[in-house]
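for the writeup, i need someone to sanity check this before i put it in the appendix. the sequnce is what the collaborator sent (i think, or maybe the updated version? ugh). structure was predicted straight from it, no edits. if anything looks off just tell me and ill rerun, i have time this weekend
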Amino acid sequence: MNLPPDLEKTLTMIADITADASEPWWIIASAAVVLHGVDTSVADVDLLMNSGDALRALERLGVPSIPDTDHAQFRSKVFGTWRDPPLPVEIFADFSIAEGGGWRRVTLQTREPATVAGRTLFVPAREELHALLVSFGRPKDLERARLLMAG
């Protein structure tokens, strides 16, 4: 897989900090689309973890954890942005999407390995990632969903 150097370095740093995670974790959104072999832009990397692993990772990295509840569409009980890698990494847990006047917690069912620079990262399967992007509903996510299924 031929990745832009900034993305490759960021992903290897994520693989290193997630090596001791006790529960499954995923790269989602644009970086996951790229890990499925689709050419799209990546401004940051989204790392979805369980609460305990996310809190431990943020603490080790010296990144404050704050609930991300101000967004009208997304909520995370644990949230922090790691800015040391070339691309910012948003680490979050207990992630929910606004849906039908309430909040639906995102629980992923699939987990596929992707190898970057000899390290293993995990992404949702193509179909589940597509559904997740569509549920986000934003134009950029809908376009990535389209590219994902076309590629």
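The mean pLDDT is 95. The chain has one domain: 5-150.
thx in advance!!
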